[in-house]
Amino acid sequence: MIDKIFSSVAAALADVHDGATIMVGGFGGAGMPVALVDGLIAQGARHLTIIANNAGNGETGIAALLKAGRVKKVICSFPRQTDSQVFDALYRAGRVELELVPQGNLAERIRAAGSGIGGFFTRVGFGTRLADGKEVRKIDGEMYVYETPIHADFALVKAERGDRWGNLTYSKSARNFGPVMAMAAKVAVASVHEVVTLGVLDPESVITPGIFVQRVVRVERDGAAT
Amino acid sequence: MNYKKLTRDQLAARIAQDIPDGAYVNLGIGMPTLVANHLRADREVILQSENGLLGMGSAPSAGEEDFDLINAGKQPVTLLPGGSYFNSADSFAMMRAGHLDIAVLGAFQVAANGDLANWHTGGNDDIPAVGGAMDLAVGARQTWVMMELLTKAGESKLVERCTYPLTGVRCVSRIYTDLAVINVTPQGFRLAEAVAGLSLAELNSLSKLSIAP
């Protein structure tokens, strides 16, 4: 029998190792798996590489992980925001490395990793400093830049409902990076607000098929782990 | 000086006037977001938001905010009937492959060849953030820029060559400013319209350029 439901966040994250590469879903606060990130802070793994759209907002989620000194490197598209003071201070102090990636390249590089694609050529970034040193090719008269896939050891994804096979649905724009990150990680851990029995999720409405998800854990809507 | 600069709202309304019925549009964060408030009621324009919304509606009324439903500026929004949600890879497929008719972006500088600089001032202490700007700049069918013509220091943001780091090369087709609307042509900047009372000579003197009539 397949049962991907974990009883606690701590159990779902117990084997995260020092130096792990971890994708974290979310766009600003929407889709940010705060309970899982809090669990990662409690778990204690260090020297992490975090792949996410932002580099933390306020003092919670990725910002709290950064503040706890667990992050070696951030790969993201939009670190600087009005409330990214934790990242800003660490970056200015040279205590965290940044790889800045255009957001569409970030999504597509993650998707490529999850799809067995060895990279792709895109027009995005050509002629800019974010393409410095990268292979370029002329395709149909236009210049394209080669981008590599981004894999991860773990993905932390906030979903809405899930079942023991790992099928997931999301809530509105909180979906964002969740589906592609789940595909690209060796171990995708999804927090859900409701665990349902098999067959309750309409197959037409399943957004992430369970094959992409290894662990599901229920958390309260306020972010607290059950 | 016999002319008046457009306010930001007037500029937003001016841009909205040029967005045709049926257009799929992405409004960049910052000033371009204002265009949404001036879309014409007699036209159906579908707004896309990079975080996974098509058919984005206006801000919810107080007390109705849902923080799972936000725009690219991370403010609560609503979804119109007929709207849809999708993941980031699908969202950027829309943005990168010419599915959007128009992207309206802010800018630090636009060059006469259509080069755009809007993500980084290049300062050493400046933390860069690019978001979806590079994707939109080259991926929409048309990229329009909305900006004030002059910086606070009075320097023209329309330039011969960008000095700030580029967002995209030869990607801007039209620039809407508080003083004039300017097209980018193979021959460089060409004036489409200026605010009442502003002559091309005055515009060229302000911008230190030779914009073609």
Report on this model:
The complex is a heterodimer of chains A (226) and B (213). Chain A has 226 residues and is of the alpha/beta class. Chain A has one domain: 3-Layer(aba) Sandwich (Glutaconate Coenzyme A-transferase), CATH 3.40.1080. In chain A, 21% of the residues lie in helices and 26% in strands. In chain A, the strands form three sheets. Chain A has an eight-stranded parallel sheet with strand order 1-14-12-9-2-3-4-5, sandwiched between helices. The longest helix of chain A has 12 residues, at 103-114. The radius of gyration of chain A is 18 Å and the shape is globular. The model of chain A has no long low-confidence stretch (mean pLDDT 96). Chain B is of the alpha/beta class and 213 residues long. Chain B has one domain (8-179): Glutaconate Coenzyme A-transferase (3-Layer(aba) Sandwich). Chain B is built from four helices and twelve strands. Chain B has helices at 8-17, 88-96, 133-139, 200-207, and strands spanning 24-27, 46-49, 53-56, 79-85, 102-105, 109-111, 116-117, 142-147, 158-159, 172-177, 180-185, 188-194. In chain B, the strands form two sheets. Chain B has a nine-stranded mixed sheet with strand order 4-3-2-1-5-8-10-11-12. A three-stranded mixed sheet of chain B has the order 7-6-9, with no helix packed on it. The model of chain B has no long low-confidence stretch (mean pLDDT 96).
